[in-house]
Amino acid sequence: MVSMAAEIGFAFICVVLKTTTTLPPTLASPTTTTSVVDQIRELEGATAGRIRTDAAATALASTDFGTNASSVDAARPAAVFYPSSAADIAALLRASSASASPFPVSARGCGHSTGGQATAPGGVVVDMASLGRPRGDGDGPSDARLAVSARGRYIDAGGEQLWVDVLHAALAHGLTPRSWTDYLHLTVGGTLSNAGISGQAFRHGPQISNVLELDVVTGTGEMVTCSKEKQADLFDAVLGGLGQFGIITRARIPLVPAPARARWVRLLYADAALLTGDQERLIAERGAVAGLMDYVEGSVLTDSQGLIGSWRSQPPSSFFSEGDADRVAALAKDAGGVLYCLEGAVYYGGAADTTAADADKGLEVMLRELRYARGFAFVQDVSYVEFLDRVRAGELKLRAAGLWDVPHPWLNLFLPRSRILDFAAGVFHGVMLRRGGGGAVMGPVLVYPMNRRGWDGAMSAVFPEDDGDEVFYTVGILRSAVAAGDLARMEAQNAEVARFCADAGIPCTQYLPSYGTQAEWAARHFGPGRWYRFARRKRKYDPSAILSRGHRIFSDPLAAPTS
């Protein structure tokens, strides 16, 4: 991420900006709140959608999971639109496109972005959840927003639907999607606009690689059904497209026979090289332990993590007894304050091919072959649903303690396999342990590998350039700013991580990216080839740069091309 900018430099930025989409001159004129409200009020008679401009509605639409409260007023929209159908959304976007000063429009699902990406300052935020709410007559959902085809083995899900509801709808037919995020209380459209990754991605790819068809409303208000066979460029643009090309109103997700249970495994390591080596053996195509786990992740454990540090992965009962906790603390002390945890799962039972005996046999092989610290293997047997929805339990605990609705200055990176140990030494054992500069960890820290073959380079999602290695890593530093001063310290520590990568020459790509200017996006995130394609698609599907300006990729006015 950062090192790319350091290598490319300002000269490259100037070259890249020559390919920038040129927008109509009217975009240079500021859009006033009054004019936006007047324009969209006309929609109330022409659509079934509702509009709110009151402070309560617009304040909620100004915040997200990562929000710094001081920025709420700057992100406030002029109005919030509550559509009853995709046609209502199309009408809104056509109204903006037809305006002398097109106003920004952003789709908001659960508001789980961490940098204001779903905001629409001075414009309109679309409350996607209203698509799934009952009609005014109270007779039921506005449409069949979750429809399973058992024969076709797919589910049609509205873009506003939560993945946890997709799961339960599919399980009613003995089926399940293959690829997940770790947190299921996110919308289908939201994760597909990014990538959607978790411990299944090594085998099945991210969620965007597991989509058959989409219904999309483009920035010009056109309603399009697209797939790899029909309107493929739009399909590829929208998946991982950060909401820049269209709003996803339906996704067709493939399904497979569902297991019933999961053997949930945690293995502790005192050495990053042993952890990553075992992770890579588990996701390989050949070898003694290859393919034995259905889910492979990992995390970094420090002695400063309590409830906040462990919220992400809460089992029904603790993995560790009090005696185990004392032994783990001693192991961490001997390891210099940092341990690593390989977290995995083996699915079995139900409609899956794997039986309980198969799961036990595979587990026996893994516990014999993997190089974890002996005596520090912990296993629980849970339902498939309990495993997939495990983060919810941690969320509820934090909510009960008043620790959920706080700023979350998260940093998510993709790293080349060849440099993961350099990163671990400099960040996990360096930057993160320097408490004076960054404070306690205060959140989960994830590290796990994925296989490149599961990703589709035609889609908009950015992942590391092919360096000849099949494997790359994701690192997620997922922190909560609870006390006064935490946010500033954590943001400073994120910047320190970026500087370390730049100084060490470690190429990084941000996942769930956030940059302040178009020049930074072009140089630091996309690179010249990808930026050219991204800008070309923007020109084609949202020429007035109406959609998702909260990302600050294409803004009002758009940065002029550099001569």
Automatic annotation (TrEMBL):
Which Gene3D superfamilies does the record match to this protein? 3.30.465.10, FAD-linked oxidases, C-terminal domain, Uridine Diphospho-n-acetylenolpyruvylglucosamine Reductase, domain 2
Q: Where is the FAD-binding PCMH-type domain?
A: 73-258
This protein's UniProt keywords: FAD, Flavoprotein, Oxidoreductase, Signal
- Is rRNA processing one of the keywords UniProt gives this record? no
| Residues of the signal peptide | 1-28
State if Flavoprotein is listed as a keyword: yes
**GO BP field:** cytokinin metabolic process
Say which domain of life the source belongs to: Eukaryota
UniProt cross-references to InterPro entries, sorted A to Z: Cytok_DH_C_sf, Cytokinin_DH_FAD/cytokin-bd, FAD-bd_PCMH, FAD-bd_PCMH-like_sf, FAD-bd_PCMH_sub1, FAD-bd_PCMH_sub2, FAD-linked_Oxase-like_C, FAD-linked_Oxidoreductases_BP
Q: One Pfam family for this entry, by name?
A: Cytokin-bind
Chemical reaction(s) catalysed: N(6)-dimethylallyladenine + A + H2O = 3-methyl-2-butenal + adenine + AH2
EC id: 1.5.99.12
MF terms in GO: cytokinin dehydrogenase activity; FAD binding
- Cofactor(s) the protein needs: FAD
Which SUPFAM superfamilies does this chain map to? FAD-binding/transporter-associated domain-like (SSF56176), FAD-linked oxidases, C-terminal domain (SSF55103)
Annotated PANTHER family:
CYTOKININ DEHYDROGENASE 2, GULONOLACTONE OXIDASE
- Indicate the family of this protein: Belongs to the oxygen-dependent FAD-linked oxidoreductase family.
What quaternary arrangement does the UniProt entry report? Answer: Monomer.
Q: What is this protein called?
A: cytokinin dehydrogenase
